[in-house]
Amino acid sequence: MINMAESKEQVELVRSLDPAFYTDPEHFRRETESLFANTWQFAGHSSQLAEPGDYFSFEIAGDSLFCVMGRDGAIRTFFNVCQHRAHQLVKGSGNARRLVCPYHSWTYDLNGQLRSGPNLKSVPGFDADTICLTSVKTEIFHGFIFVNLNPDAKPMETWFPEVRRELAEFVPELDKLRPLQWIELEEQCNWKVAVENYSECYHCRLNHPTFANGVIKPETYDIQPQGYCLRHTTECQNLDQMSYPVDADANARAGDYSSWFLWPMFSFQVYPGNVLNTYHWRPLAVDRVRVFRGWYTVDGAESEVIRALARQDRETTVEEDIRLVESVQRGLNSRGYRSGPLVLDPNCGVHSEHSVRVLQQWMRKAADGR
Q: Among 93, 122, 148, where does a domain finish?
């Protein structure tokens, strides 16, 4: 007969990452140099670049970059640095016929090619055709602009299989959507604490009553890996309990919730009613991360329902998560904490942390340079 006590002792528990993953500045420095520079990162939305010459700047992995629409209508991304003496070319957003460096007026076409500069023709052997801004690999994903600093990076479809198709299925007018509202905030925690919290719903019933009772049915919540994507699925809450109006019969997916977390720091969410919203995270330091929450409508049209939903989300789920993740970060710095065991239910489901296990496996690989 099997001794159950002995059987339990033979099972090796899966433990969470060592606290140093979240608290060590040197670990964060290595992530910036390797992980952030070799993964697909959200830059912005194509609606920010409506006309040739429109541009906006942003930062990824400690580098300043900018996206610009060319005269051919293509969106390109460049490192924000002049190839002469390294002055930054642009700030913020705007429109320019050509890109002119403020330092010495070296001038580039919108495709990054050097065209002119003071007294260049007097330099023996100088060939402007050999000088171009350093480009960055760019993909347009249903209007969302993603970049990867690794020129040899595999396409997003390889990283995140089926996500393009599934998103279009869940949001019938996806390619017509434009940002209606951005909510930006800062959390005093490591970015991995924030994305781990996002990547499990074990805490939802206890900590997110509005979300758990007025948006989804927690008992149906599950998260499964799909390439380097974590796919969240659940059913819509009973319509008489929903915190906003939903026509569940509008189409086949109108009554569903789904989320696609794209490793390492972006997520598409579709709320019941085919409502698209997004999360993305940008680390500022080992213990600080900026969080952006986006809400979208067709052509960016005004919507009282979406405005109210965004406000509800900010005042409930987002605020509740800020308190959670900042408390976790303080705990990770405690001398009394030892890496605890993950709750891994073989049947998965809402009370299992199998998704956190997958996420932490990716984190370990990143730490090893893989």
A: 148
Question: Is 15 inside a domain boundary?
Answer: no
pLDDT tens for residues 211-224?
999 998 999 999 99
pTM for this model (two decimals): 0.93
Q: Sign of the CA dihedral 296, 299, 301, 303? A: negative
- Three-state DSSP class for residue 13: coil
| Cis peptide preceding 209, ω within 30 of 0 | no
Shared domain check, 266 and 357: yes
CA distance 167 to 156: 14
- Interatomic CA distance for residues 212 and 220, integer angstroms: 11
> pLDDT tens digit string along 312-366?
999 999 999 999 999 999 999 999 999 999 999 999 998 889 999 999 999 999 9
Domain that holds residue 322: 159-367
- Please give the mean pLDDT across all residues of the chain: 94
| Domain identity same for 191 and 135 | no
